[in-house]
Amino acid sequence: MKLTPLQLGEAIHAARKNLGVTQKALALTSGTGLRFIVDLEKGKPTCQIGKALTVLNTLGASVKLITPSVVPGADAKPLAQLAKPVVTRDLLAKSPMRNVKRRSGGLQGDDAKGRKSAGA
Is residue 33 part of a domain? Predict the structure, then answer.
């Protein structure tokens, strides 16, 4: 099931109501503003995730993250496989770090415009 900002907002609203807490009190105890709580409960998609998690923690709620790699019968590749960086010789040859010589005194070489750096 895909969770939407509106569903999260409705869940936070329900949890707050079940505890008998006002939006203002929740804002004060979670360290956020009243406007943020109102927007979060309305399902505003651009609410900051860190603040939303703080509000959830304040309410005593939690979020369970289930990745495709741990769902029984899922055909998706494990996230670790998807996140592996692919570095090829061609990619390294195009890197701006290719002209940098590493020495104990610091980095020396050409800067982005081809000029010699101070240590070179």
Answer: yes
